[in-house]
Design goal:
By secondary structure, the protein is α+β, with helices and mostly antiparallel strands. The protein has a domain at about 1-120: Gcn5-related N-acetyltransferase (GNAT) (Aminopeptidase, 3-Layer(aba) Sandwich). About 25% of the residues lie in helices and about 35% in strands. It has helices at about 10-15, 20-25, 40-45, 100-115, 130-140; strands at about 1-5, 50, 55-60, 65-75, 85-90, 120-125, 145-155, 155-165. Strands 1, 2, 3, 4, 5, 6, 7 and 8 form an 8-stranded mixed β-sheet that branches. β7 (about 145-155) and β8 (about 155-165) form a beta hairpin. The longest helix is centred in the middle third of the chain and has 16 residues, at about 100-115. About 30% of the residues are buried.
Length: about 170
């Protein structure tokens, strides 16, 4: 089982593994090094839960082991004030991948956002080559919408992204 909870300072050591290099973050999650105290600082500041975004820790239900994190931020897709939606992301530690934790964490995050905010749309994107994340998003109930050409710069090259969405009320 997988569940989400508020980040705790003790989670930072596992979460900071995604900053150690591509082997820890994963090929599609590596965007360069960050400070070694990146997550500790986020957790101890007001940067974890804000009006325009936040993050939660993904943990194993029975043992509370830290498996990764989910995050969200508000984006503007249409004219204000009603053109906002949530954009979500997930990172699962390499030893916890391919066990359904990512899709379950994203499903739980969407349910949380629809329960606690008024926005109608949640979207997520991933590189066109990240087939595992595309399957995870579909398993979490997202619908594939299309390809955003050259939307992400990683590893010295512009990459195409696949965008997915889930609307309030969709299963």
């Amino acid at each position: 089982m997988t569940r989400l909870r508020a980040p705790q300072l003790g989670d930072a050591a596992v979460l900071d593994r995604q900053n150690d290099g591509p082997a820890e973050s994963g090929e599609f999650s590596w965007f360069g090094f960050r400070r070694s105290d990146h997550f500790a600082e986020r957790i101890t500041s007001s940067a974890v839960m804000r009006e325009d975004g936040g993050m939660l820790t993904v943990v194993g239900d029975a043992d509370d082991d830290v498996l990764g994190d989910v995050s969200w931020h508000r984006v503007l897709n249409g004219p204000p004030p009603n053109g906002h939606c949530w954009n979500v992301g997930v990172w699962i530690a390499p030893d916890a991948r391919s066990k359904g934790h990512g899709s379950e964490a994203q499903r739980l995050l969407v349910a949380y956002l629809f329960e606690h905010t008024f926005l109608e749309r949640v979207e997520a994107s991933t590189e066109t080559g990240n087939l595992a994340e595309q399957r995870a998003l579909e398993k979490a109930g997202f619908t594939r919408e299309g390809v955003l050409r050259r939307a992400c710069f990683r590893g010295g090259a512009w990459r195409d992204m696949v965008i997915f969405s889930k609307l309030r009320g969709e299963a």
